[in-house]
Amino acid sequence: MPLAAPLAITLGDPAGIGPEVILGAWAQLRAQRRAPPAFVVGGPQLLRGLAERLGIDCPTVPIADPAEAMFASAAGLPVLAGLDGAFTPSRPSPEGASLALASLQWGTKFALSGVAAGLVTAPIAKAALAAIGWDYPGQTEFLADACGRPYRDAVMMLAGPSLRTVPLTVHVPLAEVSALISAELIVHKARIVAAGLSRDFGVLHPRLAIAALNPHAGEGGKFGDEEARLIAPAIATLQAEGIAAFGPVPGDALFTPRARTGYDAALCMYHDQALIPLKALEFDAGVNVTLGLPIIRTSPDHGTAFDIAGQGVADPGAMAAAIVMAAEMATARAHAGA
Predict the structure, then answer these.
(1) 84: alpha, beta or left, given left = phi > 0 and alpha = psi -120 to 50?
(2) What's the 3-state SS for the chain?
(3) Residue ranges of domains in the chain
(4) 204-214 pLDDT tens trace
(5) Would you identify the CATH topology of the domain 1-150+293-338?
(6) Is-contact 299 13, C-beta < 8 A?
(7) pTM passes above 0.90
(8) Which CATH superfamily is domain 155-287 in?
(9) pLDDT tens digit string along 239-262?
(10) Cβ–Cβ under 8 Å, residues 155 and 193
(11) Would you say the CATH fold of 155-287 matches that of 1-150+293-338?
(12) Minimal CB count within 10 Å: which of 139, 192, 198, 286?
């Protein structure tokens, strides 16, 4: 089923690697004949100049309306006119942050209105945005707010060809994780993950592995009691609802090749428990997916990388994977709603 509308791709911070990996990803996907209808929200002169300077074979096509992307994609990368600016690689600025924010705001509006089939976001610089008055921890929280959903409903899933992981707690000190975990939190996020896998990934009967917090899953209480006190009751609740959840699985056993064949997503207790295996296995193909929202949102699982921006060495693989995954999710959601 072809997309009914194009994907919207945001610029991210123009001083980072976002613009160049967008160009590189599009060039790669066009060469492979895998590029879905899409457009970049702003930056036509910026992207054209960068492609010329870095020698990226990616012609850009300025468009005045997102709908034009459905046919303009055949000629090159459609870029929405009206938002633009100069930039210096590796040097974030208030002007660049303002351009990144405007691109994100407009892209979100397009996705919410259905003008765009989904949203692919390039990396932002949170400190640069905070300096111009942006008060969100990250793009995920901004999107939840824009969609009228509480932050806790926007669930981050890291996805690659061989692994999907979900951190139940994200940017918090490790010392605070135990106090933040609850059976209710595990159940709430597991429900969202199961629904998202079914609706957006076509997994009819999702299997969820629930990680332990402590070594050896607590060793019968010897190394901690969170497994028996919080995690096991949450798993029992999920199973009673018909969700195929199991665990708690010790973290050192959860990501072996054999173990990974037994589940569709692993719910992890803290940030690094989820991100270390994903980045070790899928660094150049890892995609950050936001579940639990009415819109589709993906992003490459890397940051702005200011240290290498503008040098033409950034790998566009994760951005290409994010674009393809957003298109596949949009197709799956259309099938689910048919």
Answers:
(1) beta
(2) CCCCCCEEECCCCCCCCHHHHHHHHHHHHHHCCCCCCEEECCCHHHHHHHHHHHCCCCCEEEECCHHHHHHHCCCCEEEECCCCCCCCCCCCCHHHHHHHHHHHHHHHHHHHHCCCCEEECCCCCHHHHHCCCCCCCCHHHHHHHHCCCCHHHCEEEEECCCCEEEECCCCCCHHHHHHHCCHHHHHHHHHHHHHHHHHHHCCCCCEEEEECCCHHHHCCCCCCCHHHHHHHHHHHHHHHCCCEEEEEECCCCCCCHHHHCCCCEEEECCHHHHHHHHHHHHCCCCEEEEECCCCCEEEECCCCCCCCCCCCCCCCHHHHHHHHHHHHHHHHHHHHHC
(3) 1-150+293-338, 155-287
(4) 999 999 999 99
(5) Isopropylmalate Dehydrogenase (3.40.718)
(6) no
(7) yes
(8) Isopropylmalate Dehydrogenase (3.40.718.10)
(9) 999 999 999 999 999 999 999 999
(10) yes
(11) yes
(12) 198
Please state, in angstroms and as integers, the Cα–Cα distance from residue 228 to each residue in 175, 212, 220, 293, following that order: 20, 10, 8, 31
pLDDT tens across 31-52, in order? 999 999 999 999 999 999 999 9
Query: Could you give the CA distance from residue 325 to residue 9 in angstroms, rounded to a whole number?
Result: 13
Region 153-178: what's the mean pLDDT?
95
pLDDT interval class at 1 (50, 70, 90): low
Length of the chain: 338
d(Cα 196, Cα 189) in Å, to the nearest integer? 10
* Tokens 């990144």, residue located: 100
